[in-house]
């Protein structure tokens, strides 16, 4: 997590410098939202486990909240380009008198994207965008038992990610605006790993963690005017 903050801070410093050299407009954005996930393979395993263990059941994983950071540059002709990170959250937990097991299925969605706005930055407009990047599992399995420190095991795995969105921007001032978008993300991690070893489903194949699905985001955007 600390490395993520440092990397985004570096990007946030480099983008304005590059844009200043090109005499373009830069922006920074923080956003929050939610989305649904296509965790059909994982949920099938959960359902089978719950059937066999009626006193120790996990909720199905269907959706989760997100937050994100992005930095980019607005160029001529209504186009804008940026780099961003969305932190996708999902959790499922089972517990009884003997303890609990909690799967914290947090994933980092790194993406480079482009957007087209029908009006220039600083003016309210409809926007269209698309991006490509990497979805990387960054969660934990936590095993808790009474009288013992919880044991934490790392969940990993990564795959390419693609997304597209549309929405609208509303500028309160020439430098501060709100951006609401909705879209679809394809983000299927083909092999979910526990401590570096692929988790295997009942079918004998690697278990996938699929964050694909529609999502909605609301962002707060700060624009800078890099005049020479």
Model description:
With 228 residues, the chain is mainly beta. The chain has a single domain, classed as Porin (Beta Barrel). The protein has two helices and 16 strands. The chain has helices at residues 2-22, 40-52; strands spanning 25-36, 63-74, 79-88, 91-96, 99-104, 107-117, 125-137, 139-144, 151-156, 158-171, 176-186, 188-189, 193-194, 197-198, 209-210, 213-224. Strands 1-2-3-6-7-10-11-16 form an eight-stranded antiparallel β-barrel. The protein has a six-stranded antiparallel beta sheet with strand order 4-5-8-9-13-14, with no helix packed on it. A hairpin with a 4-residue loop joins β2 (63-74) and β3 (79-88). Residues 1-22 have low confidence and may be disordered.
Keywords:
about 230 residues; mainly beta; Porin; eight-stranded antiparallel β-barrel; six-stranded antiparallel sheet; elongated; disordered N terminus
What CATH calls the topology is: Porin
Number of strands: 16
Number of separate structural domains: 1
- N-to-C SSE string, H for helix and E for strand: HEHEEEEEEEEEEEEEEE
Distance between the termini: 36 Å
What percent strand? Answer: over 45%
Biggest sheet architecture: 8 strands, antiparallel, barrel
Tally the helices. Answer: 2
CATH class: Mainly Beta
Large-scale geometry: elongated
Could you give the order of strands across the largest sheet?
1-2-3-6-7-10-11-16
Instruction: Report the helical percentage.
Output: 10-25%
Q: Low-confidence segments, ≥5 residues, pLDDT <50?
A: 1-22
Rounded mean pLDDT is 89
Structural class given helices, strands, pairing? Answer: mainly beta
- C-alpha Rg, in Å? 20 Å
User: Under the CATH scheme, which architecture would be assigned?
Assistant: Beta Barrel
């Amino acid at each position: 997590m600390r490395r993520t903050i440092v990397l985004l801070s570096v990007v946030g410093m480099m983008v304005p410098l590059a844009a200043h050299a090109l005499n373009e407009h830069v922006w920074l954005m923080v956003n929050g939202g939610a989305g649904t996930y296509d965790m059909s393979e994982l949920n099938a395993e959960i359902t089978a486990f719950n059937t066999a263990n009626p006193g120790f059941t996990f909720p199905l994983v269907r959706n989760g909240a997100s937050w994100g950071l992005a930095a980019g540059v607005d160029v001529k002709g209504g186009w804008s380009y940026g780099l961003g990170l969305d932190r996708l959250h999902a959790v499922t937990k089972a517990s009884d008198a003997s303890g609990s097991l909690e799967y914290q299925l947090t994933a980092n969605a790194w993406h480079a994207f482009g957007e087209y706005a029908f009006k220039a930055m600083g003016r309210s407009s409809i926007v269209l965008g698309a991006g490509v990047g990497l979805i990387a599992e960054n969660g934990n399995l936590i095993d808790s038992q009474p009288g013992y420190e919880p044991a934490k095991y790392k969940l990993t795995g990564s795959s390419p990610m693609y997304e597209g969105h549309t929405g609208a921007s509303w500028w309160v001032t020439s430098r501060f605006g709100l951006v609401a978008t909705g879209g679809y993300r394809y983000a299927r991690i083909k092999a979910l790993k526990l401590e570096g070893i692929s988790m295997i489903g009942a079918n004998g194949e690697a278990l996938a963690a699929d964050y694909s699905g529609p999502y909605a985001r609301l962002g707060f955007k700060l624009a800078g005017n890099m005049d020479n």
